[in-house]
Amino acid sequence: MMPLSRLLRFLGPLGAWGLLAAIAVSLQPGGAEPQLSAATPVFEAAPTSEVLLPSTPPLGVSTSVLAASDPEVPISPWQVTVAIAKPEVATPELYDAPRGQRVLFSDPVTNPSYFGTDLAMLVIAEQAGWLQVQLPVRPNGTTAWVKRASFTTETHTFHAEVRLREHRLRVWNDQELIADTVAIVGATATPTPLGRFYVNDLIPTADPSGSYGPWILSLSAHSEVLETFADGRPVIAIHGTNRPDLLGTAASNGCVRIPNDVVASLAELVPLGTPVDIIA
Predict the structure, then answer these.
(1) Residue 195 contacts by C-beta under 8 Å, 6 or more apart in sequence?
(2) Domain boundary among 156, 187, 212
(3) Tens digits of per-residue pLDDT, 120-148?
């Protein structure tokens, strides 16, 4: 048998330390595993990078991640894409599917829009060269496909929610609450329709002290009980009011009326294409 001193010289420094550690373990009573002292270094694997996203938004807002140099950088789950018709596109062509059949609706989709501003529509899905958009027509929630080349696109993280039983409107930018206000909602005979819509026009009024207040934030929604309103389409909107005494009640023709100072602030902040979820 080789003497221990010669064996240690043969193994070298690293091997010698390993052999001595093994001998020390074998000498412990009962063969128990060695206990780590406070001075014993413990090496752990580097922690895995983890991205914690906010809770999944309601009503189908999707979460996506940047396919860039850092794939772990999250895009806000509230980010939406808005399609804005190019100035030369007066009547965008609408299709039932990419490279599908042309479709028409009784409510025309034109650029400028029904209220005379740039046509903006919320994007629902995308394919190569195509955008599926929600249309500002009846029935509510109608979608169609358009050629991407006819539109520019923008993104933002604004979103709003109307809760009818609470008579309340809330607006966020991403997760930051920027407005929380009491509202007048549709009366029993002329209810505010439920669903996901979006702001498609921002219209200053001629009379800020009138029944619409200083601003109208038109939505892609229409009344589901009225065929016309004021000799036009029964468009649902968020707007001001000259009856603040009715705030907190169900008394409108379907629109969501809010205090004039609040609607004026929102008109300066909220971009076109802002999703508005109307919930019972």
Answers:
(1) 140, 141, 221, 277, 278
(2) 156
(3) 999 999 999 999 999 999 999 999 999 99
